[in-house]
Amino acid sequence: MSEPHPLSLSENPLPRRRRSGCLITLEGGEGSGKSTQVATIRRMLEAVGIEVITTREPGGTPAAEALRETLLAGTFRKLGPEAEAVLFAAARIIHLDDLIVPALAAGTWVVCDRFIDSTRVYQGLVDGLDPHLLDLLETVALGALRPDLTLVLDVDAAIALQRARQRRGAASPDRFEAGDIARYQRIQAGFREIAARAGERCVLVDGARPADVVGHEIENLIARRLFSRLRREKWRKHQDAMAETPVHGAS
Ligand code: T5A
Known about the structure:
It is a single chain. By secondary structure, this protein is of the alpha/beta class. The protein has a single domain (23-242), classed as Rossmann fold (3-Layer(aba) Sandwich), CATH 3.40.50. The protein has helices at 34-47, 62-72, 81-105, 116-126, 131-142, 157-168, 181-197, 211-225, 227-244; strands at 23-28, 52-56, 109-113, 149-154, 202-206. The model has no long low-confidence stretch (mean pLDDT 88).
């Protein structure tokens, strides 16, 4: 078989390994309640016996967390938005290779605070990067992998900003939090548009309500949208338990 030409582009990127766990992502502007709901989802899945890990982007592994620290501090800003987008993608590749893909392959469910839609909104809409570059980076990082469900938390900019500031307390804002209301409104509009365009994968959730009310709706959404996966997982657990139960009379 002849070697591919180094400059030839693959029209059909190789899919990442097949998987059996579910990937749920949470998206939305700063302070929209993503981390709070990640913890709720974890409790819900554990309560029905599903193995689950929670993680975040950028970050999730030691190497990707190191990149997160410098990205959020704005250290790479001077390199320009393209270079910064490549570094977000690098953090994502590490995260996928070292944590997400092996977990999914082992049947573990993964709940991730921010993922590909954040790149589309922050690097695409806010920083104005060419969507083709973002497509390419997404293909390199994900292959054919996509989240099974994306919950987009929708919270008005003023509330989200107030929450983010409240939580931060006296600490100084990172470069993302230092923005103004107009910027938050663009971000919110961007996430709304993604939720409308990718309705198969995304659900827009009103995140301005009390956290327990939002959590209850999310539990119902997961149960409805991923019902067959939840049932299959329970069946698999049941079979595992049966296999471990000693059979009377067996030698
Ligand atoms: N980024 C990220 C990119 O530019 N490109 C990318 O590809 C990716 C992946 C990450 C930054 O990186 C950028 C986007 C981001 O700016 P981050 O710290 O991970 O930054 O994300 P933030 O959204 O800033 O994280 P926050 O923790 O501030 O927001 P959350 O997780 O949405 O909100 P949460 O749950 O921590 O809640 C914030 C506060 O509000 C309260 C909580 O108790 C907390 O105090 N709260 C509520 N209060 C009332 N009612 C509710 N329903 C509440 N829910 C939470």
